Amino acid sequence: MPVTIRAQQAGIGLIEVLIAMLIVSIGSIGLLSMQVSGKRIGYDALQRSTATTLMRDIVERMRTNPAAVANYAANVGGYSIASEPSPNCVTAVCSPIQMAAHDLWEWEQALEGAAEIIEDNAQQRFVGGLVSPRACITHANGIVTVTIAWRGYQSTSNPTGPTCGSGADLYGDNDDQRQIVSITTYIEEI
Description:
- With 190 residues, the protein is α+β, with helices and mostly antiparallel strands.
- The protein contains 3 helices and 6 strands; from the N terminus they run ααβαβββββ.
- The strands form 2 sheets. It has a 4-stranded antiparallel beta sheet, covered by helices on one side.
């Protein structure tokens, strides 16, 4: 019995469909990988933007309270300021030193994300701030340096320069996930 062309091509359509499905699957995996990578990069950018905004916030607080600029020099983060200083300078009149203490407390709360809270399993978590933040403010003769460190998503090399947060065992092996922003400015003391 002679073999017809149709018999020779039996199953070819199925192979073509399987190859097409393989190509679509590989493309879908690539697209998914790009989405995940884009989310990570976006999250890191959000963290950097938040850190920059917070850094500018404390500098402006210091500029509005020039009589107590030296009192802002501190290392904060990890709830190092246990409770709100008294008096509450939002509702009471405060001295410049009291204002500096209250500003630092409010700023640390913002670093930790206290403004946004998620409750799960009857526990509250702050989610509006940075991941494992540490901040260092130094002051010498009107020169103020503010540095904020946080945990980035990806491992990179440990940034050189400011050491704020380094060695705290918060940022991966050899601080390879430590991200920082820093600003140095002059604030004239009164």
